[in-house]
Give the backbone structure.
Amino acid sequence: MFRIVGLPLAPFAPLFALPDQALADRGARRVPVTRVGVAPCRVSLADARPGQSVILLNYPHLDDPASPFRASGPIYVSESARDHAPDVDHVPAMLATRLLSARVYDGSNMMIDADVMEGETLAGRLANWFADPEVRHVHLHAARRGCYLARAERD
């Protein structure tokens, strides 16, 4: 059993009120969404819709100084985001409709497996990975651009 977890809204909410220059000073950008499927929100785990704005910023998704796999990368957070309440064994449409790269980590944040798959197969793959007691969490990325999308955890 697994849960796919989004990022909490609270650390990003103050960014929404900042003017564009203040965002730029922090290495972030406000981006208007013009097409469906181009701005997956890492908080709500849903694609932002055309007409909405998102904040594009760098995020340390594996912020463990003891791990050689420490990593950060760009993420989108929708200005209309709400915290995602993860369901057990459910894959949000944002993930199910994308080509994904999965990176599997143990309790020491060492990568012990990885694969690329169609999102529609993710639930089965997660069930198999979490059957191994060594697996602690799985990071999900957009396979083509490499951006961090979400984290799957054992339930």
